[in-house]
Known about the structure:
Elements: H1 2-28, H2 41-54, H3 64-69, H4 88-100, H5 105-131, H6 134-146, H7 148-154, H8 160-190, H9 201-214, H10 220-241, H11 247-273, H12 276-279, H13 304-321, E1 344-351, E2 361-367, H14 372-392, H15 395-412, H16 428-446, H17 450-475, E3 478-480, H18 481-486
Antiparallel strand pairs: 1-2, 2-3
Amino acid sequence: MTKLWGNKKVLEYLGFVIVLAIASATRLWNLGFPQKLVFDETYYVKDALSLSQEGNEKNWPEGANAVFESGDVYSYLADPAFVVHPPFGKWLIASGMWLLGPDHATGWRISTALLGVATVALLMLVAYKLFRSTKLALAAGFLLAIDGMAITMSRTALLDAPLTFFLLLGFLFFLIDNEQSRLRIGYAIQQGRTTLLWFRPWLVLAGVALGAASAIKWSGLYLLAAIGLYVVFSELQLRRVSKEKSWVRSGLLAQGVISFLNLVPVAAATYLSSWLGWINSSGGYSRNWAEDNSLPGIFGALPSWAQSLWNYHEVIYKFHVNLSEDHSYQSHPITWLLGLRPTAFFYETYSAGQMGCEIDTCSSAITALGNPLIWVFATAALLYLAYRYLRTRERVIGLVLLGVGALYLPWLLIPDRTVFQFYAVSFLPWMILGLVLVMQILYRAIGNTKLAKTLVIGFFVLATLVSIFFLPVNIGLVVPYEQWQLRMWLPSWI
């Protein structure tokens, strides 16, 4: 029995290693291609370089991309650039350039790629924490490892893959806190006592991680708010159904405030710390606003840097809410779940003899196109889970829906804003969690039969083949033009 248990553990660890090996291969192989700034890398890579050198982002001269791509990476100007996202994501990109150098695309992208691999590992930990099943954890990690959108976003120096990592990290810390706090509250109630959880280290860590996510993109605030509300009201409900005396006072008025203080101030401090480069320098955009202006009322007593930073945030906020310019790859959020308008990051054609092309015309494309099989089935799974949760209120289902709802539904409230389908990568891990959970539910409903095993194995084999088929257009492989066209299943994909 001991030998069998040991062999099982070895197989589990081997599965974990294999999934990470797949994630590493798809995200790290030929990472330096193309040696060009693709899509919004034109902003984030150059901003990251000037930020790391000056403490704030700088403008660049006309035609800077070609010069930057050739290796002349320090040609930025002295005047500050107006940027619309917080600095932390660009500090992460800069760390890769510090490690491998800024003159090659591998240095631009390595930190994003490594965080993409780490996100796969994190998802397996989250899945195991939720489902207590190694098989489901490996299944979730494998599906994220092979999904085309996740691969493309991890291989591109944009903000969304790092954002996803810190969102999922914060969610993992929240799950650990939620499990421990429920046990502590439940035990105290059984003993006839009222208890308050004063210091919650895992909730504090969740605040740090989600503060970091918000310091990459403000959309990280959605999950921070959702988790904060869940913590307060789920524990309030636990106290109520357990018939704790004075459950409103202890659960809402007292514990609610304490939980807020464990989560939100540390998130705010983490967010603010990402601006230290801007605060400690004098040449950032709006950095000296308070020298000639002042905030109204008591806010005018704040330090000048704080007033200038507040003004900068007002300007950024107005930019985001008024962003409605047409873009050829913009998409309505309601279409994201079915992948109807993937974003093309890069496309070039080559003639015979160029880039290894051996026929008249070849193509190289990088498109943030998810595995259609994974996305369609995950969407169906989420619809079923939403229906099931309304009927049963199962806690695990609620936690899966919490992640998707917090990170997806807010986008539906701003349909006129210019947005892109690849934003959906931030909640893809929760979609995959929902998919593997429904697969387990169906497997149990069918029974441990040959049919059930065939369906599960068949799905994973087919999903793998679909990912292999689309991989060339996820990572920019040079293929015959007809092969690229063969992978553009819908006119809206072009």
